[in-house]
Amino acid sequence: MKLAVYPGSFDPITYGHIDIAKRALEVFDRLIILISDNPNKENLFTSEERAAMVREVMKECLDKIDIKTSNDLTVKQTKKLGATHIVRGLRAVTDFEYEFQMTHANRVLEKGIDNIFFMTDNKHSYLSSTTVKEIAQFNGDLNTMVPPFVEAELQKKFN
Ligand code: ADP
What we know:
alpha/beta; Rossmann fold; five-stranded parallel β-sheet; 6 helices; 19% strand; globular; binds adenosine-5'-diphosphate
C-alpha cells in the first residue's frame, strides 16, 4: 500500500489544498493530512479547528484519508507513521525555492523519505490561506477560494 503524508498549516484549508490532496489520492492508496501545530507560527485557527474543517471538506474521501496534527518535524513524523512520501503543492517559483531547501534538509534528516510535488491548477495559483484570511477580514467574497463550511468558520472568527 502506497502511503503519503500531506503536511501543512491549512489555516484554513482552501480549494488549492483540496485539489492537491485529491490529485495525490490518484497516485497513493492513502493520504495522511498532517496539520502542523507549530507554537512559533501564529495561526488564526487552533489545530483542532483546522482538523475539523479538513474533515468536513474532505468528507467524501475519508475512506482514504487520515487527519492528524503534529508538533514534530514533518520528516520524522512521516517515518513514524510508516509513509514513504511527503506531498507538497507548488504555486510559483517562490514556493520552489522554499521547497528545494526543505527537500534537501529532509534528505539529510531522513534518507528513506522522498518528496513529491504537484503543480497547482492554474485557477488556484494565486490562492493562499493568507490571502483568504485577508479577504475574510474585510468581508470579501470567498466562494471561489474555500468551501462554504470554511467561509462560515472564517466569518465566525472575524465577526
Ligand atoms: P505551509 O505553512 O506548510 O506552507 P500551507 O497550508 O500554506 O502550509 O500549505 C501546505 C501545502 O499546500 C504547501 O505545499 C503549499 O505549497 C500547498 N498549497 C497551498 N496553497 C496552494 C494552492 N493554491 N495550490 C497548490 N498548492 C497549494
